[in-house]
Amino acid sequence: xxxxxxxxxxxxxxxxxxxxxxxxxxxxxxxxxxxxxxxxxxxxxxxxxxxxxxxxxxxxxxxxxxxxxxxxxxxxxxxxxxxxxxxxxxxxxxxxxxxxxxxxxxxxxxxxxxxxxxxxxxxxxxxxxxxxxxxxxxxxxxxxxxxxxxxxxxxxxxxxxxxxxx
Length: 166
Known about the structure:
Helix content: 10-25%
Number of helices: 3
Oligomer: single chain
Radius of gyration: 14 Å
Structural class: alpha/beta
Number of strands: 12
Distance between the termini: 22 Å
Order of helices and strands: EHEHEEEEEHEEEEE
Strand order of the largest sheet: 3-2-1-11-12
């Protein structure tokens, strides 16, 4: 299962539109906050399943006529996935709080934004291996980083994380 992962568009839907057009085989599209309106505009025609949360800069809490939560948990292909923006867990100062929360919830994969820095790593938390994945920002990357998005591929027990640039 191929999933596109976006975050932090901050008023610019163009990058998401271009990526979605290039990856029409994506079955799922995640948005991790700070640009819910951009997400809604960019993906409304896509047949992919859509999961989203709101970020600290999302003034509207509604997307696709649903109230966007701050965190969501989804199970795909037998993997429990936590999605969040990251600000509630202080991720700009490190991911320990986020990882321990994910561990408590029994999550296998954590998708988060907020830092604008692409991240992909496997972490061991109290005996549980958790995939930690940040797509970076699709429109306003951190200094020295290009606009980016994530591709999460789940096949059986295998989880692959990768980044692309716009």
